[in-house]
Structures are given as C-alpha cells and as structure tokens.
Design brief:
The chain has about 220 residues and is mostly beta strands. It has one domain. The protein contains three helices and 16 strands. A hairpin with a 2-residue loop joins strand 8 and strand 9.
Length: about 220
C-alpha cells in the first residue's frame, strides 16, 4: 500500500497524535474522557487552556478504504490536539482532524491514480503522476498551525507550508475504532473556529470520497 509522506513547517509546534492522548488530557461533561464510553448523545471534549503537544508519543494516523465509483479510496486521517491558526485573531480551536486520500484501481493500494488533500472546509486534488513523489510516495506539505495539506511548499494567503520541519515518513497507520462515528465534537471551541466533528460525521469526506474529490479545487 502506498502511503503519503507529510512534511511539516519548520515552525510547527503540533504533530499527529494517537487518539488516546485525549484520555490523558481532556474531559467531557467534566469527567475524564474514556474513548470506549463516549456519551451516545454526543457532547464536546474539553482540553486545558495551557495544553502542550505531548512528547514521547508515537506518530499515529488512521487508515480506511472505501470502494466507490470503481476505485478504492484509501483515506489517511491524522489527529492534532490543537489548531492555533487564525485570521485577524479569529479561528483558533481545540482539536483538528485532517486527511489525505489516495484513490487506487486495486484494493491493496499499490496502483494509485488520484489524490485529495484536506484544506480547511475544502480540499485540493491532483492526479498521482502530477504529485511530488519520493520513492513512489506522494509528498504532502502541512501548513503551520492550520494543518491544511498542500501538494507543494510555499505560502498561500494565511497558510504557510515551508516543508522544512519534521518529515513524517514512518507514520503508524492504525484502524479506526468505534469512536470514529461518535456524534460529538473533538474540542470545546465554537463560533468561527469550531472544533471538528468525528471523521465519520464529516458527510461526504467519509461516506462519498469520490464526491469530495470532485468538488475539491
């Protein structure tokens, strides 16, 4: 299976974490978070205002494959505890789910044809052969603070992804747990900078990857 390589910005302070870090740091309804016993009615996770990215944890992501439109969409989701990105001071929020998907003609994921990269509320798309490749693996540049994913390095408006930080080429890709479809928010931020829903609650990103790809830029 071909997997993406993520290059972080040199000023990035947050990195993909295993979801169990929320159990170490967060609460929900003022009680410690237990991913195996999340409230069925939803709710909001809450993290301390002085939270820092945990050190010593493995770099983990979550993989799934969906067969749609005669292709196999391999989705690679990553979880960040915090998103400091803002425009004019607005937009900072707890929690951040981002992903890259690779569409292949085979279920094993060895014959890629299309890629989609998440960016804020939209995304960017390319053919596999139009991507930067490193030993056959597509390179993704992650914007500082926002964690938006781009196919090339550089600044774009308020997003800056110089690619000179950590290179994440050995991410441990795990399977999703039941928490993937929990109907709550992975953070206690609302308003313009709203904490994200669970991956399984993110509409076409989860259930119709081919539609998400078609609507991407």
């Amino acid at each position: 299976m071909i997997t993406p390589i993520f290059k972080l910005d040199s000023r990035e302070k947050w990195r993909p974490q295993p979801v169990e870090t929320v159990e170490l740091l967060g609460t929900i309804r003022k009680k410690p978070i237990d991913l195996a016993k999340l409230p069925k009615s939803g709710g909001r996770m809450d993290f301390p205002p002085d939270m820092k990215d945990p050190k010593g944890t493995p770099v983990v992501g979550y993989h799934r494959v969906v067969e749609r439109a005669h292709l196999y969409w391999h989705q690679f989701w990553v979880w960040y505890l915090y998103n400091p990105w803002a425009i004019a001071g607005v937009g900072v929020h707890e929690g951040d789910w981002e992903f890259v998907q690779i569409a292949t003609v085979d279920e094993a994921g060895d014959r890629p044809v299309l890629l989609t990269a998440s960016q804020h509320k939209t995304g960017e798309k390319r053919e596999y052969w139009g991507c930067e490749l490193l030993k056959g693996r597509p390179v993704i540049y992650v914007a500082r603070d926002s964690h938006a994913n781009f196919f090339t390095a550089g600044a774009r408006g308020s997003d800056d992804a110089n690619g000179k930080g950590k290179v994440l080429d050995a991410i441990e890709w795990r399977e999703f747990g039941p928490w993937a479809t929990w109907p709550g928010r992975w953070g206690n931020s609302d308003g313009v900078g709203q904490s994200p829903q669970s991956p399984g609650s993110q509409a076409e990103r989860w259930s119709q990857p081919e539609v998400y790809h078609a609507r991407a830029r």
